[in-house]
Amino acid sequence: MIILASPKQSLFERNGDNLYEKGQYDLARIEYERALLEHAEDRVNEKIALTLIRKKKYRESLTYLSAGNFSSQYLKAYAALKTGLLHPALDSLNWIAKNQTDESGQFEAELLYGAMLIERDLHEADQYYRELLKKAPVHKKQQTEEIIESLKKYKQLNKKSIWLAGSMSAILPGSGQIYASHTADGVAAFLINGFLIGTTASLYDLERASQRPHTASIVSGIVFLFFYMSNITGAAASAKRYNLYEERLLQNEIREKFFHADYAESVSGIRFHVNF
């Protein structure tokens, strides 16, 4: 949020605000750090955190977000989620639920809690937002509905069957990996298993022709059996990785669309005073 410069601000904070609005976040942080030396208010810590969030230094930003106010706790929850620190994020969201009297702020925290569920389970997140929609303020209904609409894509994902991938590779080594879009792994599995079964068969014929014990062919067979079973489990793992990758793409799409840095800054209510 941008407003005109206030005479109560220090020169360093005003300079930081101007640099921040120009997108020069590293320089803005330097000015804010100087403002801290003049015993600036807690909001400067939050502005430093925002410069770090803009640079995707989420974990570092957490060190500046300890104040007992909505802005600090919301940004802390946001940065913690971006870093994958779910417990600190949940602590901040719980703080907002207990201490924030403004219903709009509480609802924003609930929206952000849904983003945590998106990271964990897309189906659970979908159910959560459907319930949240029932009590959404009028000005937030459209956003909530759009999140639900985006989550519908979860059911439309082109998922690979783990059982089918494993069965295919049991019949033809490598085919399950190829089915799961891991072509290089599939070709490697096919060649290795083909080589081992061919070697085992050749050794068996040689040992039988020379009337020798089948020691070498047994050892080769055991090695082949190991790689054959690994090929089956590998195919199942390839399908699982493919599904996880598709889910991650959708999760990232929803995060970037609804919970980006601009949105977090807007919700936090932090004001930047600029000179014209």
Task: Calculate the terminal CA-CA distance, rounded to whole Å.
Answer: 15 Å
Q: If strands are numbered along the chain, what order do they take across the biggest sheet?
A: 1-2
Strand content: under 5%
Which runs of at least 5 residues are low in confidence (pLDDT < 50)?
Answer: 1-7
Elements, N to C (H/E): EHHHHHHHHHHHHHHHE
Total beta strands: 2
Tertiary shape: elongated
| Number of domain units | 3
Output the number of helix runs: 15
Based on CA atoms alone, the radius of gyration comes out at: 28 Å
What's the CATH H-level homologous superfamily of the largest domain? Tetratricopeptide repeat domain
CATH class of the largest domain: Mainly Alpha
CATH architecture of the largest domain: Alpha Horseshoe
Helix content: over 70%
Main sheet record: 2 strands, parallel
Give average pLDDT, whole number: 87
- What structural class do helix, strand and pairing data support? mainly alpha
Say what the CATH topology of the largest domain is. Serine Threonine Protein Phosphatase 5, Tetratricopeptide repeat
